[in-house]
C-alpha cells in the first residue's frame, strides 16, 4: 500500500513536471507572439526541375527561446493553435513575409513569389482577406508576390465554404497550393472542384521513389492528373540526385528540398539566391 502511494507520487510529480513545462512553453510563446522576440522566417528555394533556377520560395516559421532553445514549427504551430495564439502569430508571420518582400524589392533584387503557410485557424478567421489586403496595401506589394499554402484537411473539412474564400484569394492575385498532397484523403475527385493552382506532392512519396513500385505508380497517377487539371506540381523533400533523376519521368515543374536548397535566414537566402535587377 505504502509503495503504491510512492509510485503514484512519482508518477504525479512526473506529470506535474510535464504539465509545468508545457505551460511554461505556452507562456513563452504568448510573450513571443506579443513582442515578436525570437520569431522569424527562414526561406527555402523552390527551383525549376529542368535547370534548377529559382522559381519561388517558401517562408518557414522559426522560434528561438532563451530557455527552450530552437523549437520546431511542427511543435509550436500546433501549440499556438491549441493556445488560441495562431491568428496573432500568423498575422505576425504574414506581416514579416510581406515586409521582407518589400525590402528585397527596395534593394533592387529580382522578386520571386513567397509562399506562406496558413493553418486552419488562420484560413478560417473572419477577416483573413481584409488583413491580407491591408498588409499588401500598407507595403505596396503586388499580391502576385504572395502565394498561399494550405493542407488538404484545411480545405476539405468545409469544402463548400472554402471555395468562395479560395476564389477571393485568387482574384486578389495570390496563387494557392495544396500542401502535403497525398497524405490526407484517398479520393482525388475533390480536386476538380477546388480553385487551386499548385499541388505540392508530400515528401513521403519522393522518399519512397526507387524503393517501391507503388510510390512510382502513385506519383505517375497524381502528376498525370495534375497536368490534366492544369495544376503546377511541386515535388517536396527532394534530398538526393537519385530522387531528382527519378523525377524526370514525371510532369513535375518545381522541386523543393535539401538537395537544391535548405531553408535559410532572409539575408543568407538573398545573398545566395536573389540577383540584382539591371536598371
Ligand atoms: P511544410 O509546410 O510541409 O514545410 C516543409 C518542411 O519540410 C519544412 O520543415 C522544411 O524545412 C522541411 N524540408 C524541406 N526540404 C526537406 C528535405 O529535403 N528533407 C526533409 N526531411 N525535410 C525537408 P519545417 O520548417 O520544420 O516546418 C515543418 C512544418 O511546420 C511545415 O511543413 C508546416 O506545416 C509548419 N509550418 C512552418 N512554418 C509555418 C508557418 O509560418 N505557418 C504555419 N501555419 N505552419 C508552418
Ligand atoms: Ca508548406
Ligand atoms: Ca509540405
Ligand atoms: Ca508537412
TrEMBL record:
Q: Which residues form a coiled coil?
A: none
Residues of the EAL domain: 22-277
Protein name as catalogued: Diguanylate cyclase
Q: Which organism is it from?
A: Oceanimonas doudoroffii
Amino acid at each position: 500500500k505504502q509503495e503504491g502511494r510512492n509510485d503514484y507520487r512519482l508518477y504525479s510529480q512526473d506529470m506535474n513536471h510535464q504539465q509545468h513545462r508545457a505551460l511554461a512553453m505556452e507562456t513563452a510563446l504568448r510573450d513571443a507572439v506579443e513582442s515578436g522576440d525570437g520569431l522569424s522566417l527562414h526561406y527555402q528555394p523552390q527551383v525549376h526541375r529542368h535547370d534548377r533556377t529559382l522559381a519561388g520560395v517558401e517562408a518557414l516559421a522559426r522560434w528561438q527561446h532563451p530557455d527552450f532553445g530552437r523549437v520546431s514549427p511542427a511543435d509550436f504551430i500546433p501549440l499556438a493553435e491549441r493556445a488560441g495564439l495562431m491568428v496573432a502569430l500568423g498575422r505576425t508571420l504574414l506581416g514579416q513575409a510581406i515586409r521582407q518582400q518589400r525590402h528585397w524589392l527596395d534593394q533592387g533584387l529580382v522578386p520571386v513569389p513567397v509562399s506562406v503557410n496558413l493553418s486552419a485557424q488562420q484560413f478560417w478567421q473572419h477577416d483573413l482577406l481584409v488583413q491580407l489586403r491591408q498588409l499588401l496595401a500598407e507595403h505596396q506589394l503586388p499580391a502576385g508576390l504572395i502565394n498561399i499554402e494550405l493542407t488538404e484537411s484545411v480545405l476539405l473539412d468545409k469544402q463548400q465554404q472554402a471555395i468562395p474564400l479560395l476564389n477571393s484569394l485568387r482574384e486578389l492575385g495570390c496563387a494557392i497550393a495544396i500542401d502535403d498532397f497525398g497524405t490526407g484523403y484517398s479520393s482525388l475527385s475533390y480536386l476538380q472542384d477546388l480553385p487551386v493552382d499548385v499541388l505540392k506532392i508530400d515528401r513521403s512519396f519522393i522518399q519512397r521513389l526507387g524503393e517501391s513500385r507503388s510510390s512510382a505508380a502513385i506519383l505517375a497517377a497524381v502528376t498525370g492528373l495534375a497536368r490534366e487539371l492544369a495544376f503546377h506540381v511541386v515535388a517536396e523533400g527532394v534530398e538526393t540526385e537519385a530522387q531528382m533523376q527519378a523525377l524526370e519521368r514525371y510532369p513535375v515543374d518545381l522541386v523543393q528540398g535539401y538537395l537544391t536548397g535548405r531553408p535559410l535566414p532572409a539575408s543568407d537566402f538573398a545573398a545566395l539566391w536573389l540577383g540584382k535587377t539591371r536598371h
